[in-house]
């Protein structure tokens, strides 16, 4: 029988962790392609590396998502409002080609738009992405032809973003490359990938996570700043990073990351802020002034109440709720008996933001998928969540079909749509709950059970704690009657008794 020392050492030996050996759902699914992978296959050199396989599968699923949009591409975007919903193939991209002035050659943020929206209501880097796609679109032929081209050009650029996300997720957890198949095969990812331009920010955030896992804090900050210039949510990752670096005493690395993020964001935004301030502010005005919208519990409240909440009340309360969630996540990070993994807290803070926000659009699932793969790479839990998101994806389009089909009422009424909202909120909450459980009971964490500490944590990986808020240690060892309590309000944890180990 091997000794405890040899068993512990083998747990930390480098090498890939095959999910078919530790995940019953992955093992059962692998029977379709010949069963669980063997040791020799893991060690064999081949062109079919995990990175290449996952990237190709992700591109293949993205292509299937494009096929799913085919009914709209040929007719529904142009010849009927309700048919693009009944066929569940809606996309913002072709509609905004003309609606935001790209068809007329207007420059985002600088040129005022005709109609109710005076300027483009997207962050600057997303506006640049949209403008570049416009440059690559032939401005000839019918408007339908141009909008089709614009969608295809954007789809090609978003496919590149998808490949970047897949590669970064695989490389972030180097010993668990096959976890990337969770992302590559995620049905909600494929269905929502071309609804909007969110994949640009998701790709930059995934690249930032990869850089942090490699100990490159400045590169992480620069990429995160660029991601925040494309979408607001990536800046939230600095909160969990602050708490984890505080616990581990890694202030220099956090300062480097924060400085890189601020400088990168300013480099992108300041030119537009200075020379087109009205256009630059449009994103923030729109975010503040818009009322409650699709996918949020606020919409249920608004539609079911005889006295719906005002926009100002929702703005204030939603902000307060996300701040309270952030404080709870910080308390969890500083009191857990083992420092949480960066990906776990990153997923929790972004999930808290979308759950409390006044809008939870179907494409917001793209923000969460890469973080969920890194936080909880367990097929059962991931597929439960994905099933909820796919149900919601169908629910929102059926509801919009109902509201746009006139007296025909084809689709899902408001009551049914409310249940779809509840389902997708519950799916996200479920995944949050299992991540919190993993933090409180690290022996249940599949990443740590395989011998890793924090593969996405970079300098935090296996770092010693220097600050912990814990009134009572759960005592991983037995100290006898009347003992077992240690109070830690900062400083290094007390040494374990001789011969004891965690």
UniProtKB/TrEMBL annotation:
Q: InterPro entries this protein is in? A: GT87, UCP010361
Name where it mostly resides.
Answer: membrane
- Answer yes or no on keyword Ligase: no
Q: Where is the composition biased (Polar residues)?
A: 1-10
User: Where does the protein end up?
Assistant: Cell membrane
- Ranges that cross the membrane: 47-67, 149-170, 182-212, 218-245, 257-276, 313-334, 382-402, 417-440
Which Pfam family, an example, fits this chain? GT87
Q: Does the keyword Cell wall biogenesis/degradation apply?
A: no
Keywords from UniProt, A to Z, are:
Cell membrane, Membrane, Transferase, Transmembrane, Transmembrane helix
Q: How does it sit in the membrane?
A: Multi-pass membrane protein
Q: Where is this region: Disordered?
A: 1-22, 473-502
User: What does the sequence similarity comment in the record state about its family?
Assistant: Belongs to the glycosyltransferase 87 family.
Under what name is this protein listed?
A: Glycosyltransferase 87 family protein
């Amino acid at each position: 029988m091997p000794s405890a020392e040899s068993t512990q050492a083998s747990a930390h030996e480098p090498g890939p962790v095959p999910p078919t050996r530790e995940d019953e759902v992955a093992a059962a699914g692998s029977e379709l392609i010949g069963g669980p992978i063997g040791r020799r296959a893991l060690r064999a050199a081949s062109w079919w590396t995990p990175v290449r396989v996952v990237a190709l599968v992700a591109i293949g699923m993205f292509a299937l998502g494009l096929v799913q949009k085919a009914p709209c591409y040929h007719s529904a975007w142009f010849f009927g409002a309700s048919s693009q919903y009944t066929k569940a193939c809606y996309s913002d991209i072709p509609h905004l080609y003309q609606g935001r002035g790209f068809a007329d050659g207007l420059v985002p943020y600088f040129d005022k738009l005709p109609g109710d929206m005076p300027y483009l209501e997207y962050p600057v880097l997303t506006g640049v992405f949209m403008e570049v796609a416009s440059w690559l679109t032939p401005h000839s032929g019918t408007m339908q032809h141009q909008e089709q081209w614009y969608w295809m050009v954007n789809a090609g650029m978003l496919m590149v973003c998808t490949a970047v996300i897949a590669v970064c997720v695989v490389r972030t957890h180097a010993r668990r490359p096959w976890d990337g198949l969770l992302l590559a095969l995620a049905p909600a990812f494929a269905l929502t990938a071309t609804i909007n331009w969110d994949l640009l920010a998701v790709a930059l955030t995934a690249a930032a996570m990869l850089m942090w896992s490699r100990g490159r804090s400045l590169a992480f900050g620069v990429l995160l700043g660029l991601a925040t210039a494309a979408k607001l949510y990536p800046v939230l990752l600095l909160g969990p990073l602050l708490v984890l670096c505080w616990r581990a005493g890694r202030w220099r690395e956090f300062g480097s990351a924060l400085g890189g993020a601020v400088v990168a964001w300013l480099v992108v935004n300041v030119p537009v802020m200075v020379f087109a301030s009205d256009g630059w502010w449009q994103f923030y005005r729109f975010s503040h002034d818009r009322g409650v919208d699709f996918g949020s519990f606020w919409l249920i409240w608004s539609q079911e109440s005889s006295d719906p909440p005002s926009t100002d009340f929702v703005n204030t309360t939603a902000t307060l709720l996300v701040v309270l969630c952030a404080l709870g996540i910080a308390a969890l990070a500083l009191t857990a008996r083992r420092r949480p993994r960066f990906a776990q807290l990153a997923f929790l803070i972004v999930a808290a933001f979308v759950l409390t926000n006044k809008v939870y659009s179907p494409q917001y699932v793209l923000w969460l998928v890469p973080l969920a793969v890194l936080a909880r790479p367990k097929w059962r839990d991931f597929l439960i969540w994905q099933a909820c998101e796919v149900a919601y994806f169908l629910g929102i389009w059926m509801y919009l079909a109902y509201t746009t089909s006139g007296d025909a009422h084809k689709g899902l009424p408001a009551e049914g749509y409310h249940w779809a909202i509840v389902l997708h909120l519950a799916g996200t909450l479920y995944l949050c709950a299992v991540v919190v459980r993993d933090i409180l009971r690290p022996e249940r964490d599949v990443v740590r059970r395989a011998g890793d500490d924090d593969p996405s944590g970079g300098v935090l990986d296996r770092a010693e704690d220097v600050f912990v808020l814990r009134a009572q240690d759960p005592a991983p060892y037995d100290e006898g009657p009347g003992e077992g309590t240690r109070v830690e309000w900062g400083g290094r944890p007390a040494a374990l008794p001789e011969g004891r180990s965690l």
